[in-house]
Write a structure and sequence with these properties.
Order of helices and strands: EEHEHEHEHEEEEEHHEHEHHEHHH
Number of strands: 13
Largest sheet: 7 strands, parallel
Oligomer: single chain
Number of helices: 12
Strand order of the largest sheet: 5-4-3-6-11-12-13
Radius of gyration: 20 Å
Structural class: alpha/beta
CATH topology: Rossmann fold
Number of domains: 1
Distance between the termini: 23 Å
CATH superfamily: NAD(P)-binding Rossmann-like Domain
Bound molecules: nicotinamide-adenine-dinucleotide
Strand content: 15-25%
Helix content: 25-40%
Shape: globular
CATH class: Alpha Beta
CATH architecture: 3-Layer(aba) Sandwich
C-alpha cells in the first residue's frame, strides 16, 4: 500500500513502518554518540516502552548502558489492509536493533494496568533476565480498568475550581481562538487520579517485589510535567496535575516497599515536547510551538532522547543528581528558566493566525508531530508501494 498520513484532529490514525524504524535508529545513533553512561542499569523494565519518553528510556538503557530491556506497551499490529500503530513499528525496530547489538530485548503488547500482563511480564523476567535493577514507568493513557474491581475509569483534561479561558490553536484548521474549559467535578478529578496517578506504578512495584525479581539497590522512576504559569491552569493545577501529584505520594510509598532492598523511587520531571500524549492536551500545541521557537533560538532545545540521556547521566546514575524539595529529579530546568518563560509569555498574546509561522515554531511542531508516525522524512519514498508489516519479524 501507499502510506500517507491520515490526520484526524490531534491524532494520526496510521503510521509508516520504515519511517518509524528510521526514527528509532536516529535515537539509537544519538545515544551511541554520547558514549557509555557509567554505572548504568543492566536489566531494565520499561512500562510504556513504544513511543515518546518510554521509548527514549529504553533506547538510553540499551545503547547508553548496554542493558537488557523488557518492554510493555499497548499498540496495534498491522493487518493486511491497515497499518499498525507507530509504537508497534517502533518496538519492532528497537527489538531488532537491540538483538543485532547482542542485547536481550523482549516485549509484551497488552494492557499494563491488568494483572494478566503483570503476571506474564514477571514470568518472562524470571525465565530470561533474573532480577531487574531499573523500572521505568512511562504510561500515558486516557483510561484504565481497575484490575480488582473491573471498573473502567476515564481521565479528563479540565481545570479545577473554575472555568479557564485561553487562546488555543486548532491544529486541524490552524485557527486560533479562545477556548473555555469548564471545571472538573469531584468525580472527574478522582477518575483522572485513578488513571494517571501512582496507583498502578505502586501495583507494579509491589508485584515485582513479591515475585522477588527486583535486585538490591533497584531504582524506579515515573514521569511528570510541572510547567509554569502559562500551563498551570490546564496542567499543573488541573486534573492531570492532581493525578501527577499522586505520583509524589506513590514514590514515598514505593520507597518503603523498596527499603529492604535499599532501593530508590523518584518522580522525574521532564520538559514539554511533542508526543502523542501531549498533542491531546488543550493549549499545549500553542505553548510547545512558542517554547520550541524560544529554546531553538537560544540553543537549548531538546527532544525525548536528549532529555532521557540527561535523566540517566545527570539524574538516575549521577553522584550529584538534581533533586528538588519533593525528591523529584529535575530535567525541566532549561524550559523553566525565567528568560525562557518570560519570552514565551511575551509572544503568547501576539500570536495570530496570520503570523503563526513567524511568531512561533509551529512548523517545527507540525513536522515533529508527523514524524512521530514516521512521516515527513527525506530518506523515505512515500510514493512507494510497501507492505504494512514492520521491516523485521516480531514476536509480540
Ligand atoms: P506517549 O503517548 O508517547 O507514550 C505512552 C506509552 O504508554 C506508549 O508506549 C503506549 O503504548 C503506552 N500505553 C498506553 N496505555 C497503555 C496500557 N494500557 N498498557 C500498556 N501500555 C500503554 O506519551 P509520553 O508523552 O511519552 O508520556 C509518557 C509519560 O511522560 C507520561 O506519564 C507523561 O505524562 C509524561 N510526560 C510527558 C511530557 C510531554 O510533554 N510529552 C512531559 C513530561 C512528562
Amino acid at each position: 500500500m501507499i502510506i500517507k498520513p491520515k490526520v484526524r484532529g490531534f491524532i494520526c490514525t496510521n503510521a509508516h513502518p520504515q519511517g518509524c524504524a528510521h526514527n528509532v535508529h536516529e535515537q539509537i545513533e544519538y545515544i551511541k554518540q554520547q558514549g557509555t553512561i557509567e554505572n548504568g542499569p543492566k536489566n531494565v523494565l520499561v512500562i510504556g516502552a513504544s513511543t515518546g519518553y518510554g521509548l527514549a528510556s529504553r533506547i538510553t538503557a540499551a545503547f547508553g548502558c548496554g542493558a537488557n530491556t523488557f518492554g510493555v506497551f499497548f499498540e496495534k499490529p498491522n493487518t493486511a489492509k491497515r497499518t499498525g500503530s507507530a509504537g508497534y513499528y517502533n518496538a519492532a525496530a528497537f527489538e531488532h536493533a537491540a538483538q543485532e547489538a547482542g542485547l536481550y530485548s523482549k516485549s509484551i503488547n497488552g494492557d499494563a494496568f491488568s494483572t494478566e500482563i503483570k503476571d506474564k511480564t514477571i514470568a518472562q523476567i524470571k525465565q530470561d533476565m533474573g532480577k531487574i535493577d531499573l523500572v521505568v514507568y512511562s504510561l500515558a493513557s486516557p483510561r484504565r480498568t481497575d484490575p480488582v474491581s473491573g471498573e473502567t475509569f476515564n481521565s479528563v483534561l479540565k481545570p479545577i475550581g473554575q472555568s479557564y479561558t485561553a487562546r488555543s490553536l486548532n491544529t486541524d484548521t490552524l485557527t486560533i481562538a479562545d477556548v473555555t474549559l469548564d471545571p472538573a467535578n469531584e468525580q472527574e478529578i478522582s477518575n483522572t487520579v485513578k488513571v494517571m496517578g501512582g496507583e498502578d506504578w505502586e501495583m507494579w512495584i509491589t508485584a515485582l517485589k513479591e515475585a522477588d525479581v527486583l535486585s538490591e539497590g533497584c531504582k524506579t522512576t515515573a514521569y511528570t510535567y510541572l510547567g509554569d504559569k502559562l500551563t498551570w491552569p490546564i496542567y499543573g493545577q488541573a486534573t492531570i496535575g492532581k493525578a501527577k501529584e499522586d505520583l509524589d505520594r506513590a514514590a514515598k510509598a514505593i520507597e518503603q516497599t523498596l527499603a529492604p532492598l535499599g532501593g530508590q523511587a523518584n518522580v522525574s520531571v521532564l520538559k514539554a515536547l511533542v508526543t502523542q500524549a501531549s498533542s491531546a492536551i488543550p493549549i499545549m500545541p500553542l505553548y510547545i510551538s512558542i517554547l520550541y521557537k524560544v529554546m531553538k533560538e537560544d540553543g537549548s532545545h531538546e527532544g525525548c532522547i536528549e532529555q532521557l540521556y540527561r535523566l540517566f547521566s545527570e539524574g538516575l546514575y549521577s553522584d550529584k543528581p538534581r533533586l528538588d524539595e519533593a525528591n523529584r529529579l529535575r530535567m525541566d530546568e532549561r524550559e523553566l528558566r525565567e528568560e525562557v518563560q518570560g519570552a514565551v509569555e511575551k509572544i503568547w498574546p501576539t500570536v495570530t493566525e496570520e503570523n503563526l509561522f513567524e511568531a512561533t515554531d509551529y512548523k517545527g511542531y507540525a513536522d515533529e508531530f508527523l514524524k512521530l508516525f514516521g512521516f515527513g522524512l527525506n530518506s523515505i519514498d512515500y510514493d512507494e508501494d510497501i507492505a504494512p508489516e514492520p521491516s523485521v519479524k516480531v514476536n509480540f
